[in-house]
Specification:
With 275 residues, the protein is of the alpha/beta class. 42% of the residues lie in helices and 14% in strands.
């Protein structure tokens, strides 16, 4: 059965953990969906892991719509959440509603995610009023990389922790259906999870969140540029792929591939007439 934002809410209410992984194309979405992962995030992390940018700032609405459409076609049961890229919502509430609408209408997402707390409560309210579920993203919000001065854990001082708690309450009051907490101290994430009625989804925020999210290239060890502390590599898929690529090259060069079973036949009397 197709998961919806209600599925996440019910999981929280039953005290059951749920999972989210990123995907950016059809075949990966299908694999993740077939594994039973409840939610797929088409993250703007695609700028880094798929397009090779150094951060997420260059990702466009066109990139997001294109990848979201592909994921939506592969996600049979998983809820599809699409990221709102940098500057697709920050400048105005009008932009926010129109661009969230594009991700739903053209991308066929079932919810959108945007980075920000109290300052974006009005945007979240307006998008929600347009019947578009919003997931808020707090803590280390990569689109604010330049304002933070780098990728840093957020909410460590009393003031910063209080601010994050206020942000979380504000986005819930504005109508958000869930909150991603990225690189937040585990005890603070646990406290936020207890205070909120909507689910929290952690990444580098400890086991006290209602759900967890990871970038699939990170958890499969397919992205070698850097490994964040919060990542567990569940399989060495990057190494397996490199070995398979090298074996393919070896077999082509030695003539072992393609073998007879990989070829198509033609009748001898047809081919003889061509000589
Ligand atoms: O873009 C992304 O993949 C994300 C996750 C890291 C939460 O926002």
């Amino acid at each position: 059965m197709k998961n919806t934002v209600v599925t996440m809410q019910q999981a929280k209410e039953r005290g059951e953990k749920f999972t989210m992984l990123t995907a950016y194309d059809y075949s990966m979405a299908k694999l993740i969906d077939e594994a039973g992962i409840e939610t797929i995030l088409v993250g703007d992390s695609l700028g880094m892991v798929m397009l090779g940018y150094e951060d997420t700032l260059s990702v466009t609405m066109e990139d997001m719509v294109h990848h979201t459409r592909a994921v939506a076609r592969g996600a049979g049961n998983a809820l599809v959440v699409a990221d709102m890229p940098f500057m697709s919502y920050q400048a105005s509430v009008y932009d926010a509603v129109c661009n969230a609408g594009r991700l739903m209408k053209e991308g066929r997402a079932q919810a959108v995610k945007l980075e920000g707390g109290r300052k974006f409560a009005g945007h979240i309210r307006a998008i929600t009023d347009a019947s578009i579920p919003v997931v808020a993203h707090l803590g280390l919000t990569p689109q604010s990389l330049n304002a933070f001065g780098g990728f840093k854990v957020q909410g460590k001082s009393e003031e910063a922790a209080r601010g994050l708690l206020e942000d979380a309450v504000a986005v819930e009051e504005a109508g958000a259906v869930a909150v991603v907490l990225e690189c937040v101290p585990a005890k603070l994430a646990e406290l936020i999870t207890q205070k909120l009625h909507i689910p929290t989804i952690g990444i580098g925020a400890g086991a006290g969140c209602d759900g967890q999210v990871l970038v699939y290239q990170d958890m499969l060890a397919m992205f070698g540029d850097f490994k964040p502390k919060f990542v567990r590599q569940f399989a060495q898929v990057g190494e397996m792929m490199k070995e398979a690529f090298a074996k393919y090259m070896e077999d082509v060069k030695s003539g072992a591939f393609p073998a007879l079973e990989h070829t198509f036949k033609i009748d001898d009397d047809v081919i003889e007439k061509l000589y």
